[in-house]
Design a protein that fits this description.
2 strands; Phosphatase PAP2 family protein; PAP2/HPO; 11 helices; signal; mainly alpha; PAP2/HPO_sf; about 290 residues
Length: about 290
């Protein structure tokens, strides 16, 4: 999705929010079971707006440990870039035998139009059945997606990193280029698929269910590597940003008891940490 298209869509959402929201505070309460569909819709749009706003203003209140974590992410990504060429070569050798079905799933699931249609269906189900948990999950997904979508769109254009197929290498950058071949970092398909997978996985307690959801979410990133559309660091950074944003939005929703769901009902989450060691760098999730 091009930057101008994304900004136009975002402005449209914000204008829609402004036109229908009666209360500008995410803290206000409504009866989630008896309120009208229109009231529930206004509540969810208002909650989404505040969630997005919180995501972009949160760094203003970061403490030293938060800056250290972000610095670790940047340093880890830079260190991981030394593996970009070797991983590209390895994935290229797997291309011929990679199932076409998985390639199609990865492409369509990570495409913005299909992604938002799927979430619209999920939200519509929650809205018309007045299922607060489903609506909250959908709000978590869309709020995180708007945030990560804007971040990755700005980053793609700002860095202008060359894709593997251009033959220019992983360290060639052409900032603010309009060429698709220079929109490699980070991976948009990864951002969307991991955002949805992580948001949905957080709703379940079973580690096996979580593992299954993350496995489906990993199809798009792996497919993009197999197809030579992205470097390993494009995938890793996109996944890390998605996880960080989803966790932040989820914490914001619990803090404000959005949809009248309190933290005591929150299932066990996955703790994600960057792992460094001899000849290895990775993102480790602990259930």
């Amino acid at each position: 999705m091009q930057l101008k298209h994304f900004i136009v869509a975002l402005i449209g959402v914000l204008l829609f929010k402004t036109s229908i929201a009666q209360n500008d505070s995410v803290l206000y309460k409504i009866d989630q079971d008896t309120s009208s569909t229109w009231t529930l819709l206004k509540y969810d749009v208002n909650t989404t707006w505040h969630g997005v706003k919180n995501s972009f203003t949160k760094p203003l209140s970061w403490k030293e440990k938060d800056f250290l974590k972000f610095g670790g992410l940047v340093a880890g990504t830079a260190a991981l870039s030394f593996a970009d060429r070797s991983v590209e070569t390895f994935m290229g050798h797997q291309r011929e035998g990679y199932p076409e079905l998985l390639r199609d799933i990865g492409w369509y699931f990570g495409s913005p139009q299909n992604y938002f249609m799927a979430n619209a269906g999920l939200y519509g189900f929650g809205l018309f059945t007045k299922n607060a948990k489903v609506r909250r999950t959908s709000v978590l997904i869309i709020t995180s997606s708007v945030t990560t979508g804007l971040i990755q769109t700005i980053a793609k254009n700002g860095f202008g990193r060359a894709r593997p197929g251009t033959g220019l290498g992983p360290y060639f950058f052409k900032p603010f280029s309009k060429e698709a071949g220079h929109h490699s970092f980070p991976s948009g398909h990864t951002v969307l698929s991991i955002t949805m997978a992580h948001a949905i996985a957080k709703q379940f307690k079973s580690p096996w269910t979580k593992a299954g959801i993350y496995s489906v979410g990993a199809i798009a990133p792996v497919s993009r590597l197999i197809d030579g559309a992205h470097w390993l660091t494009d995938i890793a950074f996109g996944a890390a940003i998605s996880i960080i944003v989803v966790d932040g939005v989820d914490k914001f929703l619990f803090k404000n008891e959005a949809h009248n769901i309190t933290k005591s009902l929150k299932p066990k989450t996955v703790s994600w940490n960057l792992s460094f060691g001899a000849n290895k760098i990775g993102l480790v999730g602990v259930f």
